[in-house]
Design a protein that fits this description.
One of its GO terms (cellular component) is cytoplasm. The protein has about 250 residues and is α/β, with parallel strands linked by helices. It contains eight helices and ten strands. It starts with 5 loop residues before the first strand and ends with a helix.
Length: about 250
């Protein structure tokens, strides 16, 4: 059926939240440390994002990434417990959804952990992130999610980026049933029409630029500058998604 793709923007600060709202993004993945693949944001940032979306009267907007560390997605008991606690804390701030994922040491989705995450989320939307792409069988992984009550999956089709994974994304979209497929991983504006043709439901991008505002990090180490959300890229993505049909 013809329609437009939804656009999710990964944002790391309150300014990014406002940019995504103003530019017309469907929703955001709120996180920090995108250089590490994204980590759980602070309580203050979650509160600010929820307030901004409420003030703009945009429902369903704030989806919080819950990931306790960088690296792979095989978590020990303490890390799983931390994720559950962070999901519940995020829910207490009236967010709209959480973004989670976990794998077993055998390269399969950790369905037991994911069931705990879904239970902790309650009525919130649950997105399973690109842990799916690190699974041995991406199609089987997505097929297992519907029974858990997962709303959507963020995936590159198991490839280094969405272009290389286009065939698998198409297969996922055809077989996913009620689980929405959101394409992410190196998404460029020019890719959006291709992804729409593959039948995905949404696209995800960080739309990042950099700034050196605030000066250097000093002799204690660190990096020069930090990520910002580029308003032009967000507007371009929303515009491109608005003119393609699925």
């Amino acid at each position: 059926m013809p329609g437009t793709l939804r656009v999710e923007i990964a944002v790391q600060d309150a300014a990014g939240v406002r940019i995504a709202l103003t530019a017309g993004a469907s929703h955001i993945e709120l996180c920090q440390a995108l250089g590490l693949g994204g980590l759980t944001p602070s309580a203050g940032l979650i509160e600010a994002a929820v307030a901004a979306a409420r003030d703009a009267s945009v429902p369903g907007f704030v989806h919080v990434l819950v990931r306790p560390r960088g690296g792979g997605f095989v978590y020990d008991a303490d890390e799983i417990d931390t994720i559950v606690r962070d999901i519940r804390r995020s829910a207490s701030f009236a967010v709209d959804g959480v973004v989670v994922g976990a794998l077993t040491a055998q390269g399969e989705l950790d369905l037991e952990a994911l069931a705990r995450f879904v239970d902790a989320a309650g009525e919130l939307d649950v997105t399973v992130h690109r842990a799916v792409d690190a699974a041995d069988d991406q199609l089987a992984a997505v097929a297992a999610l519907a029974a858990l009550g997962v709303r959507r999956v963020l995936t590159s089709g198991g490839a280094v980026d969405c272009r290389a994974g286009l065939g698998t994304l198409r297969a996922m979209a055809e077989a996913s049933g009620p689980v929405e497929i959101m394409a992410g991983g190196g998404v460029r504006i020019a890719d959006i029409a291709l992804l729409a043709g593959a039948g995905v439901d949404a696209v995800h991008l960080s739309a990042r630029g950099t700034t050196t505002r605030g000066g250097t990090s000093g002799p204690g180490g660190g990096v020069a500058g930090f990520d910002i959300t580029d308003p032009g890229l967000v507007r371009a993505a929303v515009a491109a998604a608005g003119v393609v049909a699925r």
